[in-house]
Amino acid sequence: MNNKLYGNLIFELSHEGRRGYSLPHNKFGNYEVPADIRRSHDAELPECDELTVVRHYTNHSENNFGVDNGFYPLGSCTMKYNPCINEEVAAMPGFANLHPLQPAETCRGALEVYDGLQRALSEISGLAKFTLNPFAGAHGELTGLMIIRSYHERRGDTKRTKVIVPDSAHGTNPASAAVCGLDVVEVKSTPEGIVDVEDLRSLLDDTVAGMMMTNPNTLGLFEKEIPEIAELVHSCGALMYYDGANLNPMLGVCRPGDMGFDVMHINLHKTFSTPHGGGGPGAGPVGVRAGLEELLPGESEISVGPYHGNYAVLLRAYAYILTLGKEHLKEVGPLATLNANYIKESLKDVYELPIATTCMHEFVFDGLKDKSTGVTTMDVAKRLLDYGYHAPTIYFPLLFHESLMIEPTENESKDTIDGFIEVMRRIAREAATEPETVKGAPHYTPIGRVDDVLAAKHPVVTYRQMAAEGESK
């Protein structure tokens, strides 16, 4: 930690005249750069020797946290391990060197994979057909809502401009509906955390285009009233949309298509082990029931993305599905649910459990049970960093003031989960006996607690050499 190369910026390690490269002899002659694109002054680049550069970036790379080096219980995001074989498949030259404009006859194998994944997702979801074009979950949501809107427009039913969204929905649901030009109508949850059917009844009329649902919902609870909800929505002429972000615990248990859903997207980068985070990569294939196939991108005038989606992510997902096979894919849901309930039951005596029922793949605490310590969910999350764990999702969903959302995946061992439980209990004890230690966390990370509000409102994303030199003087 005291190594100067560890915490400094690469610019701060720069010394004039040092270099870590040598260019080959110029064999192409000298050409004048056009004035309109020529720099007016030299680029502000660091001047460092090769070993300094290698050590600098190697040290910083070790600060990255991911499922390859630690437990990552990020609720609502399903940070599942991405097996190395998936990476090997995605890197195969026959796939990695494809060009988007290649003639179809030269990439039959790649198209066969595309078709195989479509058919696998249809079998898993109970829907008739998928498009793999969308590049992310929210992209898939937009695609699905465009399909719903187009369905009504083709029938001349243009007054249907409303989408019903539960108050516990992912934030992307209302955002996607708004981008699609639809009006969002919120349906409330019951005290038990599921959709209030009676409130829903009062919202249904001939202006409703569809209803978006996540199952299990954002609280990690199974929406047991779906058959009645689907019947009510369909009876008023609207369609049912399934947000597949929480599909992980459903694998091998039930299928959205069998529940009455007409359209859904699947987050391949959650349920099917492909890497995500930091803005990408991702994939959000969209499936439809029989009768809606012609509305899928590529089958109609609707188009949301070029070529064949985020192909490398699709490859990883297909490798994961084929590796588990039909038999073992059925074990994913029950194991994810078991792990989540085990953590919940092991910690509910020291953390507030607002809805005391069996959860699915994730659950939500409302901060510490002992509120008198003044230790917040943010403090608990920061203290977890000191113990080498990534924090769970915090302050979401918005239904609770101190939400702490935990999601272990099916592949975590009991030893790993027991270690996390013990640390969570230790933090609860610290909050009671030495609260300032928890409030001041993290203590052992390269950077301490930052001002989140200032960082969000005034982020510093570039390095200015002259400003830095002026400050140092």
Automatic annotation (TrEMBL):
Keywords: Oxidoreductase, Pyridoxal phosphate. It catalyses: N(6)-[(R)-lipoyl]-L-lysyl-[glycine-cleavage complex H protein] + glycine + H(+) = N(6)-[(R)-S(8)-aminomethyldihydrolipoyl]-L-lysyl-[glycine-cleavage complex H protein] + CO2. GO terms for biological process: glycine decarboxylation via glycine cleavage system. The glycine cleavage system catalyzes the degradation of glycine. The P protein binds the alpha-amino group of glycine through its pyridoxal phosphate cofactor; CO(2) is released and the remaining methylamine moiety is then transferred to the lipoamide cofactor of the H protein. GO terms for molecular function: glycine binding; glycine dehydrogenase (decarboxylating) activity; pyridoxal phosphate binding. This is glycine dehydrogenase (aminomethyl-transferring). SUPFAM superfamilies: PLP-dependent transferases. GO terms for cellular component: cytosol; glycine cleavage complex. Its EC number is 1.4.4.2. NCBIfam families: PRK04366.1.
